[in-house]
């Protein structure tokens, strides 16, 4: 309900002419956008700096690649289609349409007022066209796929001038295991207003669509625990079971220490998952999922850094299936059975290092030059930036995401809770057991710990 309340507040009006004036300035290259909601301002920043979307684009492009869906995702799309068709009848009195998209923003189907459908077609708001943020900038569909909860984009808040006569509201359906978007449900109207109840309706529709995913996650968790128990009876190697996203479902005492997750003997509720905070393990699990999709008998091995070692540890990964459907993997530590896991694929498009980091002060977006940021710290569900303007909450939703964005811009992950600006390290302190701590040049001489597994990377980066 909290998301729905935020949606209703935004529906009261985004500022009209003031927002358009801010849009004009931002498109010309200025950074100050007073009167623009933080959600929108951050999206504009992505569109201009990262995606390089032409704000004068007149229509959406054709979706480049058709995405393949799992049977569970097909069930979600069927449910979304049913909900969309039902609400289209309720919106008959409004000049509105309802659309369902996949995770890439490709429109799969739409329903609604014939006149509005015709207008939407002129902009390619129609099946087989792409409405992701990287394709058409800020809009109800694409921005919802990058956010959590209902999103409303109204008038001049759209990145492309051609869409300023539209109001769009969307919400993403996310996989309950990976957190990645599966698709979205969206309401759009031309030169009108969506009712304040639209946000609540979207949230309820998505909650219903995700019930099948939650049931499947519970069942697959129980099956992974059973596979773990059976394998553990025939092996003495440290063992863990992870889902397809690399999150731990269950681990024995030794594996739990290596992964930094709770030990589960006996097994706890199979619906619980833990993030091990080991990017290499998560990447290996995802690569293993791709291999297993082509060859169910595949078993692989690779080496990863764990939380207690300066050197990489060998692991073996064995996929676990349920009725021919991949549900996760068994990970054995200190074992090198199976084919060598391929290296992660290069990204489809070259990543452009950001020029700025975005911080939040109350409802105001603060654009920070990279030299202004000393370090980032994960605290609970938030990421905080130590900056020359004080301690600010980062716009980035996770430290992992921020680390990825800044990896090629002189920042380094030194601890599961810290990413530091290498140019802002003033001193290095060695403990009596060889552990490292970084003294930061941030006015307060903050001390940032270096974990044992990250120490070699720090020494290489600082040439010590």
TrEMBL record:
The keyword Nucleus does not apply. The keyword Ion transport does not apply. Residues 362-464 form the HTH LytTR-type domain. Gene3D superfamilies: 3.30.450.40, LytTr DNA-binding domain. It comes from the Bacteria. GO terms for molecular function: DNA binding. Keywords: DNA-binding. PANTHER family: STAGE 0 SPORULATION PROTEIN A HOMOLOG (PTHR37299:SF1), TRANSCRIPTIONAL REGULATOR-RELATED (PTHR37299). This is LytTR family transcriptional regulator DNA-binding domain-containing protein. The lineage of its organism: Bacteria, Bacillati, Actinomycetota, Actinomycetes, Pseudonocardiales.
